[in-house]
Design goal:
299 residues, alpha/beta, eleven-stranded mixed beta sheet, two-stranded antiparallel sheet, 7 helices, 13 strands, globular
Length: 299
């Protein structure tokens, strides 16, 4: 069975200033997701599942899904704040979404095969999809053999503001031992630092980071649901705390229930975190088109 690609497209895009999931950036109005789907098709994925917000379903189907739903099976699920397990409550004044791992749970009843998870608003590159698909094909029928694609931190920054990244530590065999979500990461005078409680901490240039490009087998949903219940018990009344994928992966690794291989890739990541990143993104896409990596019109 071919693996499934699960794209997280429910983000608000607040720093970017709009719905960057459906922003046309390629030569013929291609979205970042279009490039992910194109690379996934080349790599051998067999289905695409999107998690989006219900309020932009119509635009999403018109602008994005219509371009390739006749080329590969596609499904849509929806993330909303009220989708919590029965018997669990949360602060009624909360408006912030629960985070990436909550978004993953929205596909629990849709995906039954090895699957990749990635962001809609990141450009991951052709090779990253190939190495991820190959690994997922190799673990079909197993449990707890997860993976993530690792990028070097200096290749993942924005020139226009700080970013959030999952800082990774690995063992001698390339397996993840820990990943910590850090916010407010930026280059300050040639030093890459993250800022916490007004204190800057330097991060070595070759540190691998998670760009939220993961590979799982389907029992991960059960682990994630159990972890979300614990999260709600502890943080249900919080207004902003989020339920991240790295949190659950860390817990499973420490409990000996899973391993996570950090996959090398020759791909260069780039994205649109801020509106000011948009012109540079368009320039890079045009360079790849001119080199023949992508056709001028994808679909």
């Amino acid at each position: 069975m071919k693996p499934t690609l699960f794209i997280l497209a429910a983000g608000m895009g607040s720093r970017y200033g709009g719905l960057k999931q459906i922003d046309g950036l390629g030569p013929n109005g291609e979205t970042i997701m279009d490039y992910s789907v194109y690379d996934a098709l080349r790599a051998g994925f067999g289905k695409i599942v999107f998690v989006i917000r219900k309020d932009f379903e119509e635009d999403f189907r018109k602008v994005v899904l219509s371009k390739y739903e006749d080329k590969i099976p596609c499904e849509v699920c929806f993330q909303s704040l009220d989708k919590v397990p029965e018997g669990y409550s949360y602060n009624p004044e909360r408006t912030k979404p629960w985070g990436t791992n909550h978004a993953v749970l929205m596909a629990k009843d849709i995906i039954h095969e090895p699957f990749a998870v990635l962001n809609a608003d990141d450009f991951y590159g052709q090779d990253s999809f190939k190495v991820l698909a190959d690994y997922l094909k190799s673990i079909e029928g197993t449990k707890g053999n997860y993976c993530m694609v690792g990028y070097r931190i200096q290749n993942t920054l924005s020139e226009n503001g700080s970013v959030s990244r999952g800082i990774c530590a690995t063992d001698a065999n390339g397996y993840l031992t820990d990943v910590v979500e850090r916010t407010k990461i930026e280059d300050k005078g040639g030093r890459i630092v993250f800022t916490e409680d007004s204190v800057d901490t330097e991060i070595p240039l070759n540190t691998p980071v998670s760009m939220n490009m993961w590979g799982f087998t389907p029992e991960y949903f059960d682990y994630a649901m159990d972890a979300f219940k614990c999260f709600l018990q502890e943080n249900g009344q919080e207004m902003k705390k989020e339920f991240y994928i790295p949190t659950v992966v860390n817990e499973l690794i420490r409990a000996g229930k899973a391993t996570c291989k950090v996959l090398d890739t020759t791909s260069q990541w780039f994205g649109v975190t801020y509106a000011e990143d948009r012109p540079q993104f368009i320039l890079k896409i045009n360079e790849l088109v001119n080199k023949g990596v992508y056709p001028a019109k994808l679909f």
